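chain below, 229 aa
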Amino acid sequence: MSIEPAALTGKNNYFEDFNVGDVYEHARGKTVEGLENVLITNLVLNTAQAHFNEHLSESLPQKHRITFGGVTASIVVGLAMQDTGENAVEEIGLDKVRFRVPVLHGDTLYAFTEVVAKESEPADARGHREVGLIHFRHWGVNQRGETVFEGERRTLIKKRAFTTNGLAVREPAAMVPPPPATRLVRPKARVVKRAPPTAKIARPAKPKKVVKPGKPVKKAKSAARPKRR
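prediction:
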């Protein structure tokens, strides 16, 4: 069973449905729990103790821990996303962020959005086709109607003619494994036979004396005989 992506999003939040000056009051609210504030504060290593030290916070003007601004911004923008982000293809920026009133554990936040500007043919569409750029201003209020957050967001939104045809990602060609490494065959060591250290080396025989022809041979003198008396 296949579902078309368009069936998963709203029918009235494409680029053409936004008009400059429109203001949205988003349907849902969110109560801030102590767990989500302290957990995110600790996960990002925010060392401001007013976010997680209740004993210290009792000496501060608000008398309780203050919700980390990153959590407040995430909740307000998140509440606005069903109307302003379901057909977004890419977030471009979030700036001009302001936190007006501290948010305490147990406060309930509501979100509002104003369409500030729109571009049908953005200079940088980031490679997307049939998209437009929308400039939103978001703000959140607590259950007492006090503004706790303000921020401006720019995002690329699908037009109704948006299609993904022709944008299929090609699988990279399978890599051919390198040939197995050639095994190096080491030459065998040459065996040199040597005489043991105790063996005597035979000396060559002396050459015989050669007598040249025509030359008298001297006879060896005999031993002296004893004189007769």
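The radius of gyration is 49 Å. The chain has a mean pLDDT of 84.
thats it, cya
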